[in-house]
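tool=predict chain=A
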Amino acid sequence: MSTTELDFREYGEFVVRNGIIQMYFRGTQAILRFRNGYGCSIIQHDQSYGNEYGLYELAVIKFTSDRWGITYDTPITDDVLGSLTTERIMELLPEIYSLPASVVEETNE
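tool=predict ok
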């Protein structure tokens, strides 16, 4: 399985990236960015939680301008979520989409 097999049709306009990653680990990553300033990074690679069972790891992320980072202070989780099924990923997307809008900080760099 890979993130390209997840069905993001309902969230298509929010998909920033979906495909192969070549960082330190081979695998795939999908990044979604919602209007509320939050989004998620969904990964599956050699070191992701649940990969050995064909499962996914999800991090709730917060955007600042065009950059993002994992956020650990949402009602959804205070860490990354591992060993997730496709069904559980699809249940989490509307929860992230519905988070109260975050303050998106603009930088003058």
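The first helix runs from residue 86 to 97. Residues 48 and 85 are 13 Å apart (CA to CA).
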